[in-house]
Amino acid sequence: xxxxxxxxxxxxxxxxxxxxxxxxxxxxxxxxxxxxxxxxxxxxxxxxxxxxxxxxxxxxxxxxxxxxxxxxxxxxxxxxxxxxxxxxxxxxxxxxxxxxxxxxxxxxxxxxxxxxxxxxxxxxxxxxxxxxxxxxxxxxxxxxxxxxxxxxxxxxxxxxxxxxxxxxxxxxxxxxxxxxxxxxxxxxxxxxxxxxxxxxxxxxxxxxxxxxxxxxxxxxxxxxxxxxxxxxxxxxxxxxxxxxxxxxxxxxxxxxxxxxxxxxxxxxxxxxxxxxxxxxxxxxxxxxxxxxxxxxxxxxxxxxxxxxxxxxxxxxxxxxxxxxxxxxxxxxxxxxxxxxxxxxxxxxxxxxxxxxxxxxxxxxxxxxxxxxxxxxxxxxxxxxxxxxxxxxxxxxxxxxxxxxxxxxxxx
Length: 411
Hints:
This protein is an alpha+beta fold.
């Protein structure tokens, strides 16, 4: 439960500045308004005509953007100017690309919340791997793309394939699988002066999992583990249907994931908020940390979690930000259903999923052109697995299309 300062007439209304370089976080914004807060939205000029919940937003501010990137100097100056007339109480990044910007703004304006140093553990893939290794957690072998002598030593010691990863892009964006030293040197030549913004990592084959978490005052209050059908990197690079499904609660598959996730978040210092973390169960029997984030998971994973548990991660994150460590907070009691999600790029501009009519379907992706998606829910995990497997085969025939993987955000 939450006692909101926004609903207390004896206290001034909180003003929350939301940063959104992508169109998302609508439930977060709506919950802030329901809790009685003023909401300011800083977003891109290219997103000004999106269907934002305008009834819940007190004021819009727009930034020029190139490839979804803002000039940090412009953001600093703009928000500082905004603060001349606005008492900004919270700064919240609604997308992974906004985490570092929000942290720098908090430091600059002295607004409570995660600062620069901690934010790097949740955004910079090199920083998070180094921190995890220093804390004794299993991670794939990795090296910063910086010193060529050390790179050669790494390649002599760690057999290919390797994975070349940008340190700060989201998801599978910009990631390349590298089969040989010759292929790596060619890739680095193309990167030019940008090489130091990358790391090289051992490719560990295995099943990929994600754990989605709510944390308040360093205590993990809610966590749910799920398993991807195919690794997201393979889906992105080779073309396939994206699927994930929740694991049965209390199962032998779930327990070590939740335990490792708790170690990661405690080691990285997440005080309050939500997190999406990923892990690999390697063929060698080890469970490896892959990466984490201080945000709601993308690709409609929040809708998957809500279908299985009844908990809306966006809304709970809003309540946590408002409480700010000053008021008590507890998430709702979670349901114990199982759920599965599948999403496909579609040949059709408006794919018709009406032929999929099993009663377990609780959500359809209807508002994104050239995409088809469904979520199913059941008290029986086996039924969820059966439906997701069957639907993935049907999606390949009915809708599936592919496109080259992105190396940078879309305009």
